[in-house]
Amino acid sequence: MIRIAVLPGDGIGREIMPPTVEVLKTIGRRFDIRFEFKEAPVGGAAIDATGRPLPPETLAVAKESDAVLLGAVGGPKWEGLDYSIRPERALLGLREALGLYANLRPAVLSAELVDASPLRRDVVEGTDIMVVRELTGGIYFGHPKGIEKVDGPGGEERGVNTEVYTTHEIERIARVAFEIARRRRKRVTSIDKANVLESSELWRRVVIGVQKEFQDVELRHMYVDNCAMQLIKDPKQFDVIVTTNMFGDILSDEAAQVVGSIGLLPSASLGDATIELKGGGRKGLYEPIHGSAPDIAGKDKANPLATILSAAMLLRYTLGHEAAAAAVEQAVTAVLRAGSRTADIAGPGTTPIGTAEMGRLVVARIEQKGAVRVA
Ligand code: IPM
Ligand code: MG
Fold it and tell me: What pTM was computed for the model?
């Protein structure tokens, strides 16, 4: 039995989640996997219900599960709240409480959607990058932090955050990156700012040390400012990128835009927590890269594919079930190849379909493949 915490959150999160759960149920029938789904509020929805973005009940559901499927959090309704209780805090709270230190953000240019990239076809075609972002350390969580009064006249204040990394934190994220590279094109680019920051100096030294365990994987280093440039100039040079929490936040948005269709990009946040699953896996949180898109929420316009592809990552990384993951990915590719598009990816002259319809098409493809296999 695989227990899945379903946290739809806010805005389009509520619409993209039902088709994704349907996809997993269909996969369950085809591959004989038993799923148990438990839904709980998170983000703005949880603030409305309980006053807090991550209520203890929701955290408990997440902790008891093998994997968390999250929609999106936030919206204009909660923007006036104090930063400490905004919907986005729920994400940080979940990452920290579940020990999800490795954030995997694939930026793959889908062959069907080359024209969605703002870059020229010859620059971008074939781009397939995995950004491995450290997710529970660095400046997001470092101490000291806060806003304090500065002594003296004038009401001067000081805002402080601390970029801090320990050997252990760098080692474990580097290992994840090298392991993933081993299953890909065997190239890791480690991004830092070692020409200025001591925390980066340590980062680079430790990553070099870990590479000794992975001699079959090539390692190179790049400063973050140069990486920002290289991602636009020649995105195909990258295979796996490994970097800190803050740099990864920024570069993963950039990589997502390079491949154009943010409505298609999934993510996985993984920890070490060992769970008793066949095939062995890591406890994980899976969510689309895009946000809650309040402007189109409730209109059956959102693209559910990023969340559906996040479910594929769940099958791959938490269950270790490559065949099931591939079945979802192939179904999505087939639907796109057949020309079906939601509004965000519909080019001129294409009639867009809605969220629910897109979900139905993917489910149908998965069922159809199943039938072919039996026949
Ligand atoms: C992301 C988001 C979050 C982050 C915010 C919403 C807290 O930008 O997942 O990339 O900065 O990590
Ligand atoms: Mg971000």
Answer: 0.94
